[in-house]
């Protein structure tokens, strides 16, 4: 199964959740392990649209079952932004430090009680309904979503995770997302929840592969 992400830390989280679900018969491989193919722009209006864009283009290019996550932080005081623009909020894709600095600046006058935010993940799984070439195969699609509520801190805390984790205080936690262990983050995170909801579909896919 192709895991269509260029974000190494996200990829590691996806692999971790798959590993702990103990699905035998699926070998997740990253985009770096397949020949380059033209990737479609992530220009959807929603996380779900973007997850489907990534998963479908991976499936189309390789014929492999393809899993993709699209995710981001929706901040109440910013009317849900950065949202689907999270990876490039400060202008340069994947510049976590600049994204975090910009978010902090935008919220500098926002009091604690209005600093609510939530991470969202949409995970899409796309695969062929039967063993046939991608051009003639029927496309099977499963999508699951996860949400992780919390608030935006006033300064970064912690070194783990990635992206906005140092600025995110999960609901009910006294540690930022970047201060949680990997297992703690996976148990509660948007991505952990979304991906675990796909486990039955992934198991089915694995069993189908093993029957061949
Ligand atoms: O599209 P791919 O190649 O998978 O990698 P990406 O980093 O571009 O991923 P997205 O398009 O889904 O954008 C997600 C951004 O949202 C933020 N984000 C998502 N999940 C996060 C998490 O668990 N912790 C912190 N920030 C997160 C972070 O800035 C990500 O770069
Ligand atoms: Mg992206």
Task: Give an overview of the whole structure.
33% of the residues lie in helices and 21% in strands. The protein is of the alpha/beta class and 212 residues long. The protein has a single domain, classed as Maf protein (Alpha-Beta Complex), CATH 3.90.950.10. Strands 2-1-3-4-5-6 form a 6-stranded mixed β-sheet. Helix 1 links the parallel strand 1 and strand 2. Helix 1 packs across helix 5 and helix 4 crosses helix 5. The mean pLDDT is 94. The chain binds inosine 5'-triphosphate and magnesium ion. Magnesium ion (MG) binds next to loops.
List its traits.
binds magnesium ion; 212 residues; globular; Maf protein; alpha/beta; binds inosine 5'-triphosphate
How do you describe this structure in short?
With 212 residues, the chain is α/β, with parallel strands linked by helices.
Mean pLDDT: 94
Q: Which small-molecule ligands are present, each listed once? A: inosine 5'-triphosphate, magnesium ion
State the end-to-end distance: 15 Å
* Beta strands, count: 6
Helix-strand topology string: EHEHEHEEEHHH
**Shape category:** globular
Count of individual domains: 1
| Rg from Cα | 18 Å
Largest sheet: 6 strands, mixed
Indicate the CATH topology.
Answer: Maf protein
- The structural class is alpha/beta
Q: Per DSSP, what share of the residues sits in E-state strands of 2 or more residues?
A: 15-25%
Topology diagram in text:
Blueprint: E1 2-3, H1 8-21, E2 29-30, H2 47-62, E3 66-75, H3 96-106, E4 116-128, E5 139-152, E6 168-170, H4 182-188, H5 190-197, H6 199-211
Parallel strand pairs: 1-2, 1-3
Antiparallel strand pairs: 3-4, 4-5, 5-6
Helix pairs in contact: 1-5, 4-5
The chain binds inosine 5'-triphosphate and magnesium ion.
Active site: 70
Subunit structure: Homodimer.
GO biological process, one term: nucleotide metabolic process
């Amino acid at each position: 199964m192709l895991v269509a992400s260029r974000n190494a830390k996200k990829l590691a989280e996806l692999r971790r959740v798959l590993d702990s679900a103990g699905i035998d018969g699926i070998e997740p491989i990253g985009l770096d392990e397949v020949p380059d193919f033209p990737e479609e722009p992530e220009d959807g209006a929603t996380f779900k649209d973007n997850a489907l864009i990534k998963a479908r283009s991976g499936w189309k290019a390789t014929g492999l079952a393809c899993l993709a996550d699209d995710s981001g932080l929706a901040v109440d005081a910013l009317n849900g932004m950065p949202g689907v623009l999270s990876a490039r909020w400060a202008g340069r894709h994947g510049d976590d430090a600049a994204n975090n600095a910009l978010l902090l600046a935008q919220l500098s006058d926002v009091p604690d009680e209005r600093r609510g935010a939530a991470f969202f993940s949409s995970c899409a799984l796309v695969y062929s309904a039967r063993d046939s070439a991608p051009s003639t195969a029927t496309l099977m699609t499963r999508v699951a979503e996860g949400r992780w509520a919390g608030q935006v801190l006033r300064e970064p805390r912690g070194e783990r995770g990635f992206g906005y984790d140092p600025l995110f205080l999960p609901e009910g936690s006294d540690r930022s997302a970047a201060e949680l262990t990997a297992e703690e983050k996976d148990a509660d995170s948007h991505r952990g929840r979304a991906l675990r909801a796909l486990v039955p579909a992934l198991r089915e896919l694995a069993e189908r592969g093993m029957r061949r």
